Each structure stands twice: as structure tokens, then as C-alpha cells.
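U., I forgot to send this yesterday:
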Amino acid sequence: MRIAVHAFEGMSLFHLASTLLVFGEVTRLGLARDWTCRVWTANGAPVRTAEGGVFDEVWGPQWAARADLVVLPSWPGDLPEPGEDLRRVVLSAHRRGGAIAGLCLGAFPLAATGLLDGRSATTHWLHAESLASRYPKVQVMANALYVDHGDVLTSAGTAAALDACLHIVRKKIGVEAASSIARRAVIAPHRDGDQAQYVDRPMPAYRPEGVGATVQWALANLDQPLSVHDLAAHAHMSVRNFSRLFVEATGITPARWVLLKRLDEARRLLETRPWSIERIAHTCGFASAVTFRQNFVAQYSIAPTAYRARFAG
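Result:
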């Protein structure tokens, strides 16, 4: 797998180093074959980081355009529009089947390519409103740690980029590989992308309180039907009012949220329990194993049995 990590003049060394730390450990620990991670710049020239160091072991845009994963680990704080050279690399890699990851402020140049139009995305919470206003076709989920659509991924700020990189390793190689890297780096091996990215934000996730209480109740009752009417009744609201407040708090509809939570729980059980597919489907609230499989494949592009074989610890 070819990974191309973008660097630019004046970028924070942390954003570059944290990405290289996770992906570089794959090679250092011998966790995968044909795994190559390189830094590239728009003109193939060395760059000076914000801390004053010079990063001169870089590759050019031609190599990045053929990568399986192009990573935009950050972006200048004044949020300029990306140049055509960077857009061409990103779009070329994407057309060839490569994935694109916009970490932290890297979501901005990714959004500028149009690849996030009509999709959900996240960025550092301080800049979420700017992302939403500049790119109105992007559904900004300000509370998410990372959002993965398979071909494009975005993450929140700073440490969340580590979570996103570990998530990629976990998806491409497996849970044991991600856990090995996390242990060496002394970080959490896996955090779901929809966890709140900053616990002391002025607008915490799942407010108002009625929505927050209903979210907790739903998470404890995933084996139940949990229609939008059930959720609204628990919150003592009308369906219309509850749905509006829920979308404002989470960025997605109640029905979509419930489905994603059922699938998250199913994924966890597939990784940690030797249960039958039928039992997992029932435990997670799916009407049948067939319905579960259909939804799982639609979300993750892999069958539950294949997912278990690949990721079970």
C-alpha cells in the first residue's frame, strides 16, 4: 500500500510526525507487506516546519498521484484555497481508486476538490463553522472524531488525527496491528469516530437534555425497535420537534443514527464474541440476519463473516 503524506511550508511538525508515527510503525513492526509511507510536496522541494526544522526527504506530486492513500494532515491556519497542483494530485489519486484523508484542517483542501460534496465530514471544532460556511454542500459534523466514507475520510483536530490513522490501520490490516501500534505509542487503540472530540465544548453533543437522555436510553436498548416515534415519546416531544433537535445535535436523522449505532455494536461483537450472525443481528435490533447483512455490507462494503475473519482479536 502506497501512502503519500502531504507537507507544506510552515506546517506544524506534530501534524506531520503523528501521521508518520502511526503509518511508519506498520513497516517498522513488520505488520504488512508492500506498505510504503512517504512525504510529498506540491513541487517536490523540501519544506521548513513551523518549528524551524527542514524536512528534505520528500517526493513529488507524480508519486502522490499514484498512491493508494493521500493524506492531507493539516493546512495553513489562514485557510487559503489549495492550488491547482494539489487539487490535481488529490483528484487523480481518487480517480485511480485511491482514498483521500483530510486530517484536522486538511478537511479544507479536501472539501475544495468537491469530493466531500453531499457527504458528512468533520474538522477541528474551532473551524467547523468556517468549513460549513465555505463549503455549504458539505454536512459538517462538528462533534465527530473522524468520519470515514471509505474513499474519503476527515478527522477532528490534533490527537483525533492519531485516532483516524489508527482507524485506517485497523481497517486495512486488522485490530491486532492497530493495537500493537497504539501500545507502542501509548494511546487508545480504538475510539469510534462519532465520539465527542472535545469534552468541554460550549455546545456539548446531544443537547438539549431531552435528546441527550434519549440517546443514552437508545444506546442501552439497541435490541428494541427504536423507531423515531419511540425516541420522540421517550423525550416527551413531538416527532417533528424531536427530529429537528436531533439533527441539530448530531448532524444526522434519528433513523440513520440508530442504524449506525446498531452497526457499531454489531462490529464490536463480531470482533470480540464468537456468537452466530443470527444472535448478533437480534442483539443489535435487526429484524433478521438477512437485514443485518444487507445493512452491514451497505455501510462497510464487507460481509459480517468476512469482517470477523479479518478483524476478530
